[in-house]
Amino acid sequence: MTVLEAFQNGERILLANGIEDAAFDCGCLFEAACGYAHAARIAHAYDVLEPEAEIQFFSYVRRRASGEPLQYILGKWTFCGREFQVGKGVLIPRPETEELAEHASRTVRENRYTVVWDLCAGTGCVGLTLALENSDIHVVLFEKYNPALAYLVENQQTLGVQNAEIVQADVLLPPPEGLPLPDLIVSNPPYIPAGEIDSLQPEVLCEPRTALDGGADGLDFYRAIKELWLPCVRTGGCLWFECGDGQGEAIALLFSDCARSRVHYDANHVDRFVEIHV
Ligand SMILES: C[S@@+](CC[C@H](N)C(=O)[O-])C[C@H]1O[C@@H](n2cnc3c(N)ncnc32)[C@H](O)[C@@H]1O
Question: Mind listing the pLDDT tens digit for each residue in 28-47?
């Protein structure tokens, strides 16, 4: 089978299985399996594919057609320009979370903060990015679940992050003792109301439920952070949260005894982040 025939067949299979971005996904899978990026694929359109590459490509296509997220098949995804290892058991970093990392990084620089805690760290995309962009700070990343922790440790090693430490901890319980206290807490916790999870897109349901489920109203983690973790934040410090649509004001209200708070919305007036100053 030629490169062109394989690609066209793969794309057809994805389209027939309702994959929206079939051409894009097919291109990524083709490159992962056969090593041909877009330009090389065009240049070599009539070359015959190596049998192993063809088998690998169609195995990836079948996984994608059955609803497995593209990122899990590729085993990596880009966040703020860096490649993070991802796979079953860890949340795939989202583009909107890049904005959270940018806000938090700017806050660190403007206030010359030195210690950051990333609660519910997952792959570590937020906390490790902050550590890499601010070499003079120390970042502590907290994560409860072993499968996510494994990716977190791997990402710290692969990205060569020296100024960060990983702590296995439950954010719904008090913080472990003996850690440097934070100027900034940043968190993208699970925030989907439990009753809404089953109606999410099938691909999202491939991701761990523990990364999504924020309790009955989605706010369990914000309440726990307010009660248990906020007291650790140094005076003059700050918290940056990602949140779900319609949650911003409720989170700001939870933290109403702090100095000030601000809800950040996207262009469609959907709640995205809450910034709280202590
Ligand atoms: C929404 S994901 C965010 C992951 C990552 N920060 C990101 O932005 O891609 C939430 C993370 O919280 C972790 N988590 C869930 N419950 C937790 C708990 N009780 N304590 C600590 N981490 C928890 C999940 O395993 C998951 O990695």
Answer: 999 999 999 999 999 999 99
Q: Tell the residue nearest (CA) to atom 26 of ligand 1.
A: 211
How many angstroms separate the alpha carbon of residue 191 from the centre of ligand 1?
10
The domain spans of the chain are: 3-67, 76-277
Kindly report the pTM of this predicted structure.
0.96
User: Does residue 210's CB lie within 6 angstroms of at least one atom of ligand 1?
Assistant: yes
From 218, 232, 241, select the one nearest 169 (Cα to Cα): 232
Contact assessment for residue 31 and residue 79, using Cβ atoms and an 8 Å cutoff = no
State whether the beta carbon of 143 lies less than 6 angstroms from ligand 1.
Answer: yes
pLDDT tens digits, 255-266: 999 999 999 999
Pairing of the two strands 271-277 and 260-265: antiparallel
A 10 A CB-CB count for 169 gives 17
Q: What is the pLDDT of residues 162-186, one digit of tens each?
A: 999 999 999 999 999 999 999 999 9
Structure tokens at 99: 């904005």
C-beta 91 within 6 A of ligand 1: yes
Q: For 76-277, CATH number?
A: 3.40.50.150
